[in-house]
Amino acid sequence: MRRIKVIKLRELKPALPWAGAVIGILVLSGSSLPVRADSPAKFISRGNGSFYKGDYEKAEEYYQRASVKLPESAVLAFNRGNVLYRQEDYTGAREFFEEATLKARDLVLEGKAWYNMGNCAFREGSRQVDSDLEKSLELYQEAVRFYATALGKYPELSDAAHNIEVARLVIKDLLDKIKRQQEQRQEQQKRMQELVDSLLTVMQRQEGAIQDSDRLAKEKNRQEKGWRDRSRKQQGKQEDIRESTAEIEKKLNELFQGQAPPPVQEASSHLDSSLVHQREAAGDLSQGKPERAGEDQRLSLEQMKKALGKITQGNKDKQNQQQGEQGQQEQPSPQPEQARTEQQAARNETAKGILEEEKDNKKKRKQQARGGYQKVDKDW
Question: Is the pTM of this model over 0.85?
Fold first, then answer.
């Protein structure tokens, strides 16, 4: 048998190259002045050092202090996202990566922020697999969209293409599981309906037994052989009804294999009570006491009605839940990028313009370098 190749998710490190670039700009722009101990460059440098030492709380503290003076820094938002990501706070990390996509001035950093948003969605999806397959599927699909957006911003980001393949393999497996789960639910609903039908039949038999007991109770001459024979016959019918009720309860418990929802558990409890009254009714008939038997049979029927109500309630609750889940699946999944399409389009054009401008500036700097040092203006 051919072995399936295991493909692992690839993850990026912090945006240290960009952080270094920011430090370089800060140092150059203040080359005639000493770097203050409380400068953003110093905080970023210390934050990077703490990050690689695994001291994420300290790294976040330094990044946060730097962000006070550089509130529009995409790099700081990116690195703060990485801190939370390493601490497995994927929701918080995703918010910072999203912030980085909005603040980024170049497509490379923006692409990597989208990529890390994809990783956050992927990890959140992994957490939902055991509890909510539909939610997990939604998150994996979202991760694919984020990776695809990352590739659109930064086509050289090959890890994004790799992770799309990983996510799609997981999605395929999830779809198979969801299909099997739906088939199991349908089979369960079918068997539940069969149990409901069986219970209704037993209830009708119990109503008939009540009528028979009432007729026996009205007869005055109970010493005749015919009356005693009818009483014993009614006893046998009541015992048959009890066996049928016990079989229904057994199948009900087997259907959920010890994981029955509360309404079904209550239904099982009502059936237990019904069985007790049925046993007492059979004993009353064996002793020639049809009046008492009728009382126990009525109590038995009352408990069966309550059981039926709980089973029906549980079934309706489950159907409503499934319909709600299907309704959510039919609605288009919220796509954060849609709300920012125009803003991103404008930002993309700006980023392209910056790249072109930077090329021109490089040429100018080379020319200036030949003629001597020129002061670099701050861009923060």
Answer: no
Tokens of 144: 């694919």
The predicted-structure confidence for 317-338, as pLDDT tens digits, reads as follows 555 554 454 444 444 444 444 4
Q: What is the pLDDT of residues 154-183, one digit of tens each?
A: 999 999 999 999 999 999 999 999 999 899
Convert 32-41 to b/e letters by CB count within 10 Å (16 or more is b). eeeeeeebbb
**SS3 track for 188-244:** HHHHHHHHHHHHHHHHHHHHHHHHHHHHHHHCCCCCCHHHHHHHHHHHHHHHHHHHH
The alpha helices in the chain, defined as continuous H runs, are 16-29, 40-53, 56-69, 74-86, 90-103, 107-128, 133-153, 158-218, 225-256, 262-286, 290-330, 336-339, 341-371
Report the distance separating Cα 68 and Cα 163, nearest Å.
Answer: 34
